[in-house]
Design goal:
The chain is mostly helical and 158 residues long. It has five helices and two strands, in the order ββααααα. The protein has two domains: 30 residues; 104 residues, no CATH class. It has a two-stranded antiparallel ribbon. The chain is elongated and about 70 Å long.
Amino acid sequence: MISCSKCGIELSEGLLFCPACGTPVGESVRQDRYIPDKGFKEIFFSTKGRLNRKRFIIRGLILGVAGNVLTVLIVSLLTALLDFDGMILSMIPASVLSIVMIFFGLTLNIRRCHDLGKSGWYVLTIFFIIPGLFLLFKKGTVGPNKYGPDPLENNLGI
């Protein structure tokens, strides 16, 4: 028996749409193939699904480089424009940028945990070095797990 992904009621065989909410039954079944992320929002804001090692490392590098470049630009521009006061004022936008980058990093790490078959709460152990290395180098679960299909089944996109 399958259930509707939108409203959760159990559906009998042969239905094309959920009788309660109208969601197509084909969308109610969990997807069997990995669909690569498209767009900035899905790549950095989503905590759903899985993220393999390659995408995790590439996105982490992009995030680190972009964050550092933006921080240097903000600090140097405000310091050049406002002398010493600019350095003090630049700490506010640099701090906001740091918080945003931490959030992006957490979403990437949560999806990497999902690829290993672990809950997103496992990210809290990343403050210890060994679990962080575990996330970076451990091969993900082969085949689908409870967080989604295997991202290595069709290796498309970053």
